[in-house]
């Protein structure tokens, strides 16, 4: 396949995954703020929003097995289509057990859909463009997170929960209608192996693989978990429910939503830029710069009391954190043999998912709000040390 065809296949796959992501993303806006819609307590909301991530500890290895056993086409079509069942549950069920099962099943769907996108991007690229192609997949996929949060909130306010879920379901079907015919006669060229489940766990004995897994865990805890979950809690504790920006006053939920919206925008805009820059100027340089930007933001949160400076610090954290996250994907791809990609991506995704599930527990349940600045500063030092260790271990493979 030529480069133009590769980009088209990556684009259609990522758009399809982003369509399926819409229903999941809107829950992170609606459930914490309107739990009464589903007759839930806040404690139950926390369980539901974490369940889909913890289950991936099991479904990520299973998705690797499915990719090696059946290829990427059949599992992708099945899980993209069956993910519609979770939208039905969100729209019409108020039973906690049914919602919990729907969240578990969505975790399984996401494992397969995300891995398919990563494999198609990785195996459509070369060493010269893998950073751009991997970040392109990540960036386009994340439009579903922005669309679910922003458009979903608007649709819910104007049309209601049921019609919102119906629209998201129709968009998923349209995406599937484009994807399936395009890949019907296309060889995705994913190297197949037999004992995938056995290979998955046996690879954890490899120190390089284990190190990359823990790198994904660390990034998941700090960026996707701790910072994203604790931002509203931190702002409310520090500044109160109403935040005064001199010219206007905004609620803490509005400010937290805008800052999280920037994180989603960074996923879409900065991710491909970071991938292109790392391909052109070297992954080590961009890794260090990304880590330093995020670390500077984390350190600043422990020193500044000015509202504008605190918000700017969060922008640095999310911008640098997104850049750092997308730089690790090419490292994962280049650090292992090509025939091991499905297992390696599954291992990395699993550790990253567990980290993103642990982050909210650490920031909201285990650490008092008064200690959050100290925790942020500790994370800043940790990120720089992590990138330094990545450089020492993989410098001969990734630059």
Descriptors for this entry?
single chain, 399 residues, mainly alpha, Growth Hormone, Chain: A, two-stranded antiparallel sheet, 15 helices, globular
What layout of secondary structure does this protein have?
Layout: H1 3-33, H2 42-54, H3 56-70, H4 73-82, H5 84-92, H6 96-123, H7 130-159, H8 161-183, H9 196-202, H10 207-239, E1 242-244, E2 249-251, H11 252-281, H12 283-300, H13 307-334, H14 341-366, H15 372-398
Antiparallel strand pairs: 1-2
Helix pairs in contact: 1-2, 1-6, 1-7, 1-8, 2-6, 2-14, 3-6, 3-9, 3-14, 4-6, 4-8, 5-6, 5-8, 6-7, 6-14, 7-8, 7-11, 7-13, 10-11, 10-13, 10-14, 10-15, 11-12, 11-13, 12-13, 12-15
Summarize the structure.
The protein is an all-alpha fold. The chain has helices spanning 3-33, 42-54, 56-70, 73-82, 84-92, 96-123, 130-159, 161-183, 196-202, 207-239, 252-281, 283-300, 307-334, 341-366, 372-398, and strands spanning 242-244, 249-251.
Please tell me about this protein's structure:
This protein has helices at 3-33, 42-54, 56-70, 73-82, 84-92, 96-123, 130-159, 161-183, 196-202, 207-239, 252-281, 283-300, 307-334, 341-366, 372-398; strands spanning 242-244, 249-251. The mean pLDDT is 81. The chain has a two-stranded antiparallel ribbon. It is mainly α. The protein starts with a helix and ends with a helix. The chain has two domains: 1-183, MFS general substrate transporter like domains (Growth Hormone, Chain: A, Up-down Bundle), CATH 1.20.1250; 196-399, Growth Hormone, Chain: A, CATH 1.20.1250.20. It contains 15 helices and two strands. Helix 10 runs parallel beside helix 14.
């Amino acid at each position: 396949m030529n480069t133009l065809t590769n980009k088209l296949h990556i684009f259609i796959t990522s758009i399809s995954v982003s369509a399926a992501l819409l229903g999941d993303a809107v829950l992170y806006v609606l459930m914490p703020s309107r739990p009464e819609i589903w007759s839930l307590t806040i404690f139950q909301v926390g369980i539901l929003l974490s369940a889909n991530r913890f289950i991936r500890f099991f479904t990520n290895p299973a998705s690797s097995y499915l990719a090696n056993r059946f290829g990427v086409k059949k599992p992708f079509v099945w899980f993209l289509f069956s993910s519609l069942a979770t939208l039905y549950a969100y729209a019409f069920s108020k039973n906690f057990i049914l919602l919990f099962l729907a969240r578990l099943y969505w975790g399984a769907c996401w494992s397969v859909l995300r891995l398919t996108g990563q494999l198609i991007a990785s195996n459509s690229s070369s060493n010269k463009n893998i950073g751009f192609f991997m970040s392109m997949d990540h960036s386009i996929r994340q439009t579903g997170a922005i669309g679910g949060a922003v458009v979903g909130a608007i649709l819910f306010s104007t049309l209601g929960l049921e019609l919102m879920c119906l629209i998201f379901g129709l968009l998923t079907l349209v995406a599937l209608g484009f994807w399936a015919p395009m890949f019907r006669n296309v060889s995705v060229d994913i190297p197949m192996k037999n004992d995938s489940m056995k290979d998955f766990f046996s690879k954890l004995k490899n120190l390089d693989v284990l190190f990359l897994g823990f790198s994904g865990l660390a990034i998941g805890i700090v960026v996707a978990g701790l910072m994203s979950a604790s931002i509203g809690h931190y702002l409310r504790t520090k500044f109160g429910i109403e935040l005064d920006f001199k010219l206007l006053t905004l609620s803490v939920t509005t400010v937290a939503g805008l800052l999280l919206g920037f994180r989603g925008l960074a996923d879409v805009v900065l991710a491909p830029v970071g991938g292109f820059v790392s391909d052109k100027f070297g992954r080590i340089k961009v890794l260090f710069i990304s880590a330093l930007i995020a670390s500077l933001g984390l350190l600043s949160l422990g020193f500044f009391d000015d509202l504008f400076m605190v918000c700017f610090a969060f922008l640095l954290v999310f911008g640098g954190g997104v850049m750092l996250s997308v730089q690790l994907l090419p490292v994962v791809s280049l650090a292992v043999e090509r025939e091991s990609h499905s297992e390696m991506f599954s291992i990395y995704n699993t550790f990253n998912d567990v980290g993103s599930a642990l982050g909210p527990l650490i920031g909201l349940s285990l650490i008092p709000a008064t200690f959050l600045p100290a925790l942020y500063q500790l994370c800043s030092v940790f990120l720089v040390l992590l990138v330094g260790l990545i450089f020492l271990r993989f410098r001969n493979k990734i630059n």
